[in-house]
Amino acid sequence: MLRKILLIDDDDVDRMSIKRALKHSEKTNMEFSFSEASDAQLGLNIILNEPLDCIFLDYLLPDSDGLEVLRRIREHGIITPIIMMTGHGDEKLAVKLMKAGATDYITKNSIDADELLLRVSRSIHAYEAEKQKLETEAALHKSNEQIVSILESISDAFISLDQEFNLIHLNSQAESLLLIDPQQALRKNVFEVLPFLEPWLNISLTLAQKNNSHLECEGEYSPSQRWLEAQIYPTEDNISIYFSDITQRRKNEERLNYLANYDSLTGLPNRILLMDRLVQALTRAPWRKRQVGVLFCDLDRFKIVNDSLGHDAGDRLLSIVADRLKDCIRCGDTVSRIGGDEFVIILADLARSEDISTILQKLIDAVSVPIRINSQELFVTVSIGVSLFPDDGVDASILLKNADIAMYSAKDKGKNCYHLYSNALEERHSNRLTLETDLRRSVENQDFIIYYQPIVDTQTDKIVSAEALLRWQHPERGLIFPDEFIVACEETGIIMPLGNWIIETLCQQLVEWHQIGFDDLRIALNISNRQFNHESFNQDLMSYIHQAGLSPQSIQIELTEHIVMSNIERALQHLHNYRDMGFSLAVDDFGTGYSSLAHLKLLPLNTLKIDKSFILNVINDKNDMAITKAIIAMTHELGLTVTAEGVETDAHYKFLKTLGCDYCQGYWMSRAVPAEEFVKLLKQHY
Ligand code: C2E
Ligand code: MG
Ligand code: MG
């Protein structure tokens, strides 16, 4: 490689002798080219404009002192080796020159070619090494500056640690996100300065360092109340950590998680989370030798509240019930809302199944405390079905299904109570499903018949009316009585189309009987809760009657005491409507439904029908006799007539007649019979 040498000397011979001495440059693996200057000014010009590898500088120059030139060169920051030349050796001068920045020093009259070559090559080598070092340092400095500016420009907070976890660098984002002052924090242990990072960062940091691999983790940084994600990158001598603020992402995730797993009205777990918890409870229970209880709770009168007071009140009621249910259970158990007024409770840790009855009673009592909403007192109750793991199923969905079945039994038992699942219940449930399918098919095929039972006026001993009683002519099972299917019709809504068919059929029948001469005969029609509460039912009824050409006076509507009393305000309103339309109104099964006399007085009724349970033993049972007497007296007092049901014997009839009972109905005269047979009865007793 060609090295460029500048010779600054006014003496041509001296310059020549240097060049000659360096002629055998091959010995050093260097080749030289030479520039020459005869005074300091010329020399400096070359130095400032050309890259050089070595300078020979004469101490005595015509225009300047060599020492001065040396200083000026060095002042320009030029580090090229400078070998000073003097006329003769002078130790003191040599020291002075070296101090001023000379690289070497030779005496002109004693130049040994080999030695000069050696000294020049050594100076050049040293210079090149120094130059290389400076360049590397400059490059490093530049790249450091770039890194710092990159770290400043990223949005993440960045810190770097040494292997002892001392902080060695942090960007300004780290200062603000982690709330640290770099002055105080640098060179200190990161967990000493930022103790709130330790609980979730320490383990990952140690692991990343140990395995020398990237790790990420996240946690809450309480001083700034932010959720941070940390990306840890260990290198050979330090560890870089990037923190990003994931608070918003966390919030979104939490919100999504909440929406997916919780009921927004009550804040309770929804069906998805319930199933999840149930599965967990079932997994844990066997090895802890525990049972798990699944409680299916359904509010009893919720629909009425919702319909009559509006959805806002309904929602408030549900929230209050949710809170009460929660208050009854232990932590570790779950209350969930899985539908309108359906709550499911998991008792995850039952030591003995007997313990459950206490909790069940607590739940029932808690719900039944009156709830005040918009200055109104509301009374709701709950029916609860219970299934137990492992006896009633080992699978979450089976347990839930069985608890649901048991809940229906609690409803059937009269509500506001609980019922435990049993296999017999399952059988009943599946019978019930078959019953429903059969019923629907039979409604289409019109497999129903109306039977008629005479009602006799005790003053004349004549039939004055007939109660229409439904029978189901089942294709396989034969004749079925209403007790077996009327509740299912009511609950499934089948009663609506079926009820219309009954009305249409009995209207035609009554017209026929009127036409053949029994022109004052009336018919008593039973209507169910659902029909009674249906908005347009009275209009529909009226239109059937008009179509048949009948008058409403010939129809007596029978409602059970239970239907009337379950919502007295509504009953009052409907009954007035029916009464205004001209129907005669009877309360059926009277004595079984806790009527309030105060209410009874307000109702626009015509007749009370004493329930057959009082009549069957009216002669022998003193209580039944007393009750029957009292009902008859009270009914007359209210200006109503009274009918006794279940009059089975002649003795019954006579006795009731003496008590002043107005009408009697029962096997004594006849069971309910098909229309053709009823005509025969009419012919004898009308
Ligand atoms: P209910 O309205 O109280 O009808 C009287 C029930 O007592 C009838 O039972 C009748 O057969 C029975 N009965 C009559 N006399 C005697 C007697 O001397 N001794 C005894 N032990 N029982 C007697 P049935 O026909 O089985 O009807 C049962 C209930 O089903 C009815 O009670 C009524 O609530 C309901 N039901 C019947 N038909 C209809 C209908 O068309 N629509 C609606 N919604 N319900 C109906
Ligand atoms: Mg009846
Ligand atoms: Mg009755």
Give a short overview.
The protein has 686 residues and is α/β, with parallel strands linked by helices.
In this structure, how is the largest beta sheet organized? Answer: 8 strands, mixed, barrel
Query: What is the helix fraction of residues, given as a range?
Result: 40-55%
Q: Which sequence of strands runs across the widest sheet?
A: 18-19-21-22-23-24-25-26
Number of domains: 4
**How many H/I helical runs?**
27
Low-confidence stretches: none
Radius of gyration: 54 Å
- Taking the alpha carbons of the first and last residues, their distance comes to 144 Å
Describe it.
By secondary structure, this protein is an alpha/beta fold. The protein has 27 helices and 27 strands. Bound molecules: ligand C2E and magnesium ion (2 copies). One magnesium ion binds at residues 467, 526, 558, 588.
Descriptive labels:
binds magnesium ion, 4 domains, eight-stranded mixed β-barrel, Alpha-Beta Plaits, five-stranded parallel β-sheet, alpha/beta, binds ligand C2E, Beta-Lactamase, Rossmann fold, rod-shaped
Write the layout of secondary structure elements.
Blueprint: E1 2-8, H1 12-21, E2 31-37, H2 40-49, E3 54-58, H3 66-75, E4 82-86, H4 91-99, E5 104-107, H5 113-153, E6 157-161, E7 167-170, H6 172-177, H7 182-185, H8 190-193, H9 198-211, E8 215-221, E9 226-234, E10 239-245, H10 247-261, H11 271-284, E11 291-299, H12 302-309, H13 311-328, E12 334-339, E13 342-350, H14 355-368, E14 371-373, E15 376-378, E16 382-389, H15 396-412, E17 418-420, H16 423-445, E18 448-457, E19 462-474, E20 478-480, H17 486-492, H18 495-515, E21 522-526, H19 529-533, H20 537-548, E22 555-560, H21 561-566, H22 568-581, E23 584-590, H23 597-602, E24 607-610, H24 612-615, H25 622-637, E25 641-645, H26 650-659, E26 663-665, E27 673-674, H27 675-685
Parallel strand pairs: 1-2, 1-3, 3-4, 4-5, 16-17, 19-21, 21-22, 22-23, 23-24, 24-25, 25-26
Antiparallel strand pairs: 6-7, 6-10, 8-9, 9-10, 11-13, 11-16, 12-13, 14-15, 18-19, 18-26, 18-27, 19-20
